[in-house]
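<given_protein>
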Amino acid sequence: MNRLGDLERAVMEVLWQRSEAMTVREVGRALAERDLAHTTVMTVLDRLAKKGVVDRAREGRAWRYRPAASREDYVSELMFDALGQTGDRDAALAAFVRSMSDKEAEALRRALEGNDEQRT
């Protein structure tokens, strides 16, 4: 899973905030404060489609883009990729857990308990 650049991340934030697929023009309007050329937004969306981060479907002459996965699923994949790059996954996980706040650790505990219940 590739990490996203600054502009790719901004485009994905726009797509993740919407429930419907968007055209290049709609994404560009949502990023109006960045003053991006239409071709720049089109290029970024094309690259994201080639990376598999967005899905696109033809609607007339335009493409409509939507995230291929939720923000949470994308971040989860990044975390798994990062763990895969360590020599010791257990040590990396332990260090990660030690860096958590109490609130984050409790959320992790609840998620693990829910995961255990699904397996049984």
